[in-house]
Design brief:
Layout lengths: L1 E2 L13 H10 L4 E5 L3 H12 L4 E5 L14 H13 L5 E8 L2 E2 L2 E2 H18 L3 E6 L2 H10 L7 E3 L6 H9 L3 E4 L10 H8 L5 E3 L21 H12 L3 H16 L4
Parallel strand pairs: 1-2, 2-3, 3-4, 4-7, 7-8, 8-9, 9-10
Antiparallel strand pairs: 5-6
Helix pairs in contact: 3-4, 6-7, 7-8, 8-9
């Protein structure tokens, strides 16, 4: 199984990151994609992933990081991102995306400008995009009519939109990552989306340390919980857990590359 979105570099893992990884490998996780979210985190993240071939970095600027970054420095940050992606170590561009119409310090105009730059970098470096979208699906949908997807595709991480919206995104070629909420007792909309998405576009993620699945809800999440998401997707699609694990792993390698 491949965890396609795990913030393993978060400070909440500093005390026991090694033990967290040992539990992940023991649970059957074979690869973890760790998305960078701000310029100050890129170099430490790359250093972390160099220490284990099962760890893989994505590099990007999360919209929630924009308020703490001077807008005048956006172009310089994106130039640094371009240079780091050119080194060939990262396997994805992002986490990047849109976060509502009125994020303090990051108006939608700025978010869109930075996101367009990420699209261009993903096309330039032939890498997939890790997309975040929260309360901004109309804006993202419009952007997707104007910006060609990178050749390697894009993933809507921790997808929380409805099934009809998912069908529209699927027609555009996007992949979908599903995290802990698909395991919750009240999970209805997420599971409807799981059933609406083509099997070859389904991915699983923990988004650790956030969004822990049942029965760990409210606790720190970690990659060893990934089987919970696989089990939830398998039940929703009426296939075996082994089949869903194999399918989502195949999908992840198609998106990110066979080296994952």
């Amino acid at each position: 199984m491949i965890d396609t979105h795990c913030h393993l570099d978060a400070t909440r893992f500093d005390a026991d990151r090694g033990e967290v990884l040992e539990r992940a490998w023991a649970a059957g996780v074979s690869g973890i994609v760790v998305p960078g979210v701000a310029p100050g985190e890129w170099e430490p993240l790359l250093a972390l992933t160099r220490g284990d071939r099962r760890l893989h970095a994505g590099l990007g600027i999360h919209p929630q990081a924009l308020p703490s970054l001077p807008e005048a420095e956006d172009d310089a940050a994106l130039a640094t991102l371009d240079a780091l992606l050119g080194e060939g170590t990262a396997i994805a561009v992002g986490e990047c995306g849109l976060d509502g119409p009125s994020l303090p310090g990051a108006p939608m105009e700025r978010q869109l400008k930075v996101l367009r730059a990420h699209f261009a970098l993903a096309r330039k470096h032939r890498l997939p995009l890790l997309l975040h979208c929260f309360h901004a699906h109309p804006a993202l949908g419009q952007l997707l009519t104007e910006e060609p997807l990178p050749e390697r595709g894009a993933i809507l991480h921790s997808y929380s939109g409805g099934a009809e919206l998912a069908k529209g995104y699927a027609k555009r070629g996007l992949y979908f990552g599903f995290a802990g909420p698909v395991t919750f007792a009240e999970a209805r909309k997420p599971l409807e989306s799981v059933r609406a998405v083509p099997l070859d576009r389904l991915l699983v993620e923990t988004d650790a340390p956030d969004q822990a699945p049942h029965p760990h809800r409210g606790e720190r999440s970690e990659p060893s919980y990934l089987p919970r998401m696989v089990e939830a997707l398998a039940r929703a699609r009426g296939v075996s857990v082994a089949e869903m694990a194999a399918q989502t792993t195949e999908n992840a390698r198609r998106l990110f590359g066979e080296g994952l």
